[in-house]
Each structure stands twice: as structure tokens, then as C-alpha cells.
Amino acid sequence: MKLDLALLHAPSVYDFRKKDDVLFAYLANSDSVHVSGIFEMPPVGLLAIHQYLESKGKKVEFYNIASHMLRYSEFDVEKFLFELEADFIGIDLHWLAHTQGVLELAKICKSYHKDSKIFIGGISASQLHLDAITYPQIDYVVRGADTLEYVEMLLNAENDPDRLKQVPNLTWKYQGEVIANDLEYPNKPYSAVIDWGKIFGNGNENITPYNIVIPQYGCEYNCNWCGGSQYSNQKEFGLSKVVEKTPQMLQQELTTLINSDTKKHTVTMINYWHEHDGLLDAVDEAFRNDKIERIHISIRKLPEVERIMKLSWSKKIIIELSPDSEQMELCKMCGHAHYTMEEMEDFIDNVLEAVYSFEIYFMIGIPNQTRESIQKTMNYCVHLLDKYRGKRVMPYICPMLPFLDMNSVFFDHSKRFGYKVYHKTLKDYCNALLSMNWKNRLNYETNCLSRSDLVDITYEIIREFTKKKAEYQILPKGICDGIVKLIDETVALLEEIDLYENMTESYEKECKGNKVRSAIFEYNQRAFKSVKSQQRPMDFGFARSQWFDTDEAFKRFEDERRGENIC
Ligand code: SF4
């Protein structure tokens, strides 16, 4: 059956499984999110586009190529793409970390299916649309947020130039000319309501009961390093305020989760919906249901204690705080000195009994931040371990990776804030993602720390902090020893890579290169077997099926191929 649209999620690097010249090093991806260096988790909006278009009668499938490659070593991507039949192929380029994978997948698709139209979308695609459209494998870029209707209009336009002109937010090319249609934002609530029953249904009890619900689009805050800030949304999409789902829409989405086949869900609800009374009231009934076991929320400003009590009356609530630094001058630099550490600790003390756990994030990569100030941050984290021993208050120190967000305040005013920015175009990002040593992948360095320093200090600090976690019995000693061993092995391999890359061309360099590549390949193969992050140093079942794995879609594809062959 030919599809109207095949949606694909690309790995960060294609074909990562064969790579012996890119080290997918521990801590080299965004360690504040539990994904592998392949970034197999797609933006949730992809599910929304899929479900919306199906409701409009379109034949659509979503294939998560990244996670399928990661989970099934025998999966033949090129055979799959060759056999795939679709009028349109849509690939998300939401995060720059996917640049190389997206452009490569698109190239392969185009080489097999000259008549299929390929489009990309997402934040990074929107930001770099004029660059992306120059690639022969990209026919269209759908810019903006909440693009369900625009994608539908694109499909309905059937590549007719007169109708393409009418599709808001579309960048396209016609007779050698690039055309960027006007940008619009739909004048309505945030429409990406997911039916989670379609993901957690069909008796699929093996799927990890963990998912993400997005109650609002945009952000009312301005963290200077963030490409999803008010500043960035205003600049990129003309979005001056947050766009929320209505309380009914949010209720409807949570109800689909409650009516699904799995139990004991952990729901991560991103952004700051709980600051809005209507949305806070809307979740009340759903959160009382036994199907939802844990709720993970982010807090930017410390809320009143009553608000937290309201959320946590019967649930295990996980609160994520991101002060970035305990040093107020660095917090101010980041644009969000909303509370002091004393105030934060008072808040934690007040709600500790009602809260299941706290995750507190500190960052490496802030301008004016030196080795000494990072060491001070670690000392403060040790203080937290000590004070809250046995009470599920867990600080994390994460490097800002892999990139400083384009369109963030820091990126746009890099010199003023003390950053040197390295990559700007899609080609730059492709090359960066193919770096053997991840220090060359970084798109920034600060006035105090070079890219090499950022890598070195990341390993030094996490190593030391891991040992402290063992000392304070936060993690079992065996796990901490395993992490320290992995860090030591990674650092040693990065040193070998540096030695090799700094050698002059010679027979010795060739021999060294063979050794290094074979060590990288072996390291990567081990790394792909499980997802490890600071939050979940063991895989804890996340390697099972997750909300973004698309085994059923691939199975339907295989069944159909088999049926065609029998006929
Ligand atoms: S990091 Fe800051 S600016 Fe970005 S979404 Fe969170 S609160 Fe908003």
C-alpha cells in the first residue's frame, strides 16, 4: 500500500552502527536526558502529526529509524527505504544533533524515490530553512510550531505551485528559486493532543510505562542558553506568549493514558503548566487515578507549598529544579537568578515529605565559569548529598551538550557574553557530528574554558562526584565503580584519538589509525547495547519497548511485503 506520508525519525549519525571514526562517548550527548548518543527519542509532535493526519483520512505511518537501528542490529535500513512507498516523506530536524542523520536519510530516500517529496520540520529545520532548502534531497521545509494543519495543507497541495503558495510557513523551491511563505501561528490552543491509547494499547504490556505530555508550547522564561525561550520563540516564530492546550484538551489527553492497557505510568509534563490555574485544576482527576503512579514536573520559580501539595496528594511527584549554578553571579549570567540556594533548600525542606524525589541540575558551560567555580558547584552538590542522605534529593552536574542552542540569547550575542561559537551552517553541524573526538563536535567554548577544557573537566568532575555518591551510599559501590571505570576508559581512548589526530601523515599514523578505529568500534558496539545516563546509571528496563519505538509499524510493513510476495 502506498502511503500518503511516511514520517521518519533519523539517528544523529548515519550509519552509526558501522562507524569506527566517531566515538559515541559516555557523557558526550545531552546527559540531562536519558537517551543514547543516537538521540533515538523523537519530538512528541511527530506523534501528533501522525494521529492528526490519520484522523483526516490520510494513510500515514511513523517509522522510528533511529531506535529500530539501535534495537535490531539486523535491520537493513537501505532495503527498508528502497521498499518504502510514500508520496511524501517527512523527517524531523528538531534538534541539531540530528543534522547528519536527517540529511543522509533524505539523500537515500531521494535516490530511491525521485518522485516522492521529502520535507523536514522542527525547530532546527525552521531556523536553518534557507540553508536546508538548498540541499537537493529536501523539497520542502515546514517551519514553525504546531504545524499539524500546515502539513495537511502541504499534502493536499499535491505539489501544485499555485496551491503551495497558499501553505503558511512553507519554504520550497520553484524553477530554481527559493520561496519562503509567510510565517503564521494558528490562532487557537496548542493542538498537539496525543491519543496515548494508540501507543500503550493493543495489549502491549511490555512497553515501558513512561511518556511525555506537553501542555503548552513556548516558554514565559528567558534562560539565555535556551533555544526554546521566550526570546527565541519571539524571534523565530513571532510567538510572544505561551500557547496552551485548553484544560479540556489536557484532560482528554491524560484520559487516553488512563484508558490504555499499561499501568503505573510515569508522566513527564514539561514546561510550566502548573503555574496556570486552569491547567492545574484540569489534571486533578487524572492524577488521582491509580494508572498514573509518578508525575515528573519542572519548576523554574519556586512555587507556593500549597501548589505542590495539590499536585502530590496521592502521587509520587518528581520535581526537577534547574538552578544551573549555586553561584548567583553565574545564575544571573544565565538569565534566571530566581532563588538562592537557601531559598531552594527551604522549599525542599517544606515539601520533602510530600514529594517522591528531587532532581537538581547544575551546568558546565556557563561564561565566567572556571575550573574552580565548577569544583565549588560540586562541593555544593556534595553538601546536598550529605544533607538529604536517604531522602531522594539528587543533584546532577551536566555539561551543556552537544550544542549551545542556535537562536538562544547566548548564541546571538556570543561575544558579549564571552562565548566563541564554532558551527553555523548545516554543513558545519554535519561535519561536527562526524568528529572522532567529541570536543570538536561542541559548537562553543567560553571565555574561561576551551573545548578541550570542557571535555576534560566534565570527566574529572563526574568521576569525582560519582565517587562521592558511592561514599554517601547514594548509589551501590559496584555501579559507581563501573561508571568510574567507563570514564577512565573513555578518557584514555580520547587521549589516543588526540595522539592519532595530531600525528603527521606517515605509515605510523596509518597503523595508529587502524588501532584507534578498532578500539572505537568495539567501544561503540558496547555503548549501543544500553542507555546510560547520570539519572539512570543502569538501564532499568528502558531498553525494552518505549513510547517512541515503532515495532508495530515495521511489522505492518513486513507483513505487507510478505503478502505482496505471496501474491
Ligand atoms: S530552559 Fe528556561 S527558557 Fe528554556 S524552556 Fe526551560 S525555563 Fe524556558
Q: What's a quick, concise take on this entry?
A:
With 567 residues, the protein is α/β, with parallel strands linked by helices. It has helices at residues 45-55, 65-71, 77-83, 99-112, 123-127, 129-132, 148-157, 161-164, 230-237, 247-258, 277-282, 284-288, 305-311, 328-334, 341-351, 371-387, 409-412, 414-417, 426-433, 451-471, 477-502, 507-527, 551-566, and strands at residues 3-9, 60-64, 86-92, 117-121, 140-142, 170-174, 177-180, 210-213, 216-217, 243-244, 265-269, 292-299, 316-324, 357-364, 393-399, 419-421, 444-446. The longest helix has 26 residues, at 477-502.
Kindly describe this structure:
- The chain has 567 residues and is of the alpha/beta class.
- Among the domains are: 3-144 and 147-184 and 548-566, Response regulator (Rossmann fold), CATH 3.40.50.2300; 324-471, Transcription Regulator spoIIAA (2-Layer Sandwich).
- It has 23 helices and 17 strands.
- The strands form 4 sheets. The protein has a 7-stranded mixed beta sheet with strand order 2-1-3-4-5-6-7, with helices on both faces.
- Helix 4 links the parallel strand 3 (86-92) and strand 4 (117-121).
- The mean pLDDT is 92.
- Bound molecules: iron/sulfur cluster (SF4).
